[in-house]
Amino acid sequence: xxGLGVAGGATSTEGSYHNLLLLLDLFRLAVASTFLFLLxxxxxxxxxxxIADPRLFASATVAYLLLSIGALALASRPSELESTLLTLGVxxxxxxxxxxxxxxxxxxxxxxxxxxxxxxxxxxxxxRTMTLFHAxxxxxxxxxxQVNRMLHADQYSVQLLEPGLLCVGYFVxxxxxxxxxxxxxxxxxxxxxxGRELENQLRLNELVIQDVEDGxxxxxxxxxxxxxxxxxxxxIGVTLGPGTQIESTCPELADTERxxxxxxxxxxxxxxxxxxxxxxxxxxxxxxxGNQVLVLIEDLSRQEExxxxxxxxxxxxxxxxxxxxxxNPLAAIMHAADLLAEDRAASGxxxxxxxxxxxxxxxxxxxxxxMQLARRDRANPEQIDLEQWVVNFxxxxxxxxxxxxxxxxxxxxxxxxxxxxxxxxxxxxxxxxHNAWRxxxxxxxxxxxxxxxxxxxxxxxxxxxxxxxxxxxxxQIFEPFFTTFSKGTGLGLYIARELAQASGARLEFRxxxxxxxxxxxxxxxxxxxx
Length: 530
What we know:
Layout lengths: L13 H28 L12 H21 L7 H22 L9 H13 L2 H25 L8 H51 L3 E5 L5 E4 L1 H7 L9 H4 L1 H12 L8 E3 L4 E9 L6 E7 H43 L6 H26 L7 E4 H16 L6 E4 L5 E4 L1 H18 L7 E7 L3 E8 L27 H11 L3 E4 L6 E8 L7
């Protein structure tokens, strides 16, 4: 960047400065060439140019032309001396044109107007200080010639008003053009900066699009690919590039795109890609007001692979925990059995048998919980009237656990429907209600079941008035085999959360509530169904 001196410190690009300087040098060369043409052809006398001093006119014209050629040669290549060359060029114009004007009879020849173009052109390129210097140089040269004529000729035949007005014009035009150039160049700087920002943003968008795992395609109304990232090519097994027809490379995707154009509100369909054997779900988004469409392709096969890997990892952790949990009751059973084998008539035999039975029941509960966890993927969701279902559950739970009639308090919103597996929901609520009763005070209404329908979700709370969960334990309550109850397996809350996810719900602990609260949440879709 070369500093382009304008008011306010605006700058322009090196190319803009250099091009304008060349244009000013070409104007200077054109004026000098015109003078030489008039001199050679003798037409100068017709226009009263050089009539007062032909020898001065000829000398000034030849020198002006040679120096103009030299100035143009020096300015043909960008350099750090361009601002100096600009000022020297204006000085050349002032000396040459004033000399030709003097040889042509003075101000009445009208040649002083040519300095206006030179000063105005320099005002576009120079800063304000140099702009004023150029205008002052032209004014001094013009007024010097007029004063010289007054001293050597009839002073009453020389006018100073018109030259003075022209000198004022030099200053006014220079200042106005300098200010205007400052605005233009400032706008150019902003445009250049924004252009670079836009270019960087486009490059960043391209990098992001190319690196996302989902496929991204932009199609026009004829099915021609405008933009496609690498993930699309990996999914369909064919390289897609700008200009490719989607019909010839992936007809399955083309059929889905045509169906979407006919029925845009239809839910995204799953597409089987025969070359790679992958399953994908394309989603179509109109682009602007045209017929272009953005296609976002979700790789379901990759998601299934990740889900499978996560399940294997979770199964590995669960298996290790199960092995650890089984070891303790088995050790107790084997130790008790060894003691019984040593002395069957010992007085401690009933206690040893009780140890065996207790640990056997613990193992049975552990196996039952694991079997319930294994059945989490066998969800059979159906529409459930939440109010009626909770009322029936409270009755069955109270009867099975032999609770007082007023042990459970109900606060249920009427007419709320949810979609869930009733078997899973029963297991979830049984675990939550059992924990709430065990940790509650046992007073009437110490366990409360509260349901409500909010704007974006249906919620079902299980609350108890117990001492609550210690803050340092809240992050572990959903981990498998974590328990503060000596006879528990530590799988209750873990299984409840897994079953909730399998049924499309979410189980959360709500520490901000005044009572110990576990909340089941069913998100609502756009139709208001949970």
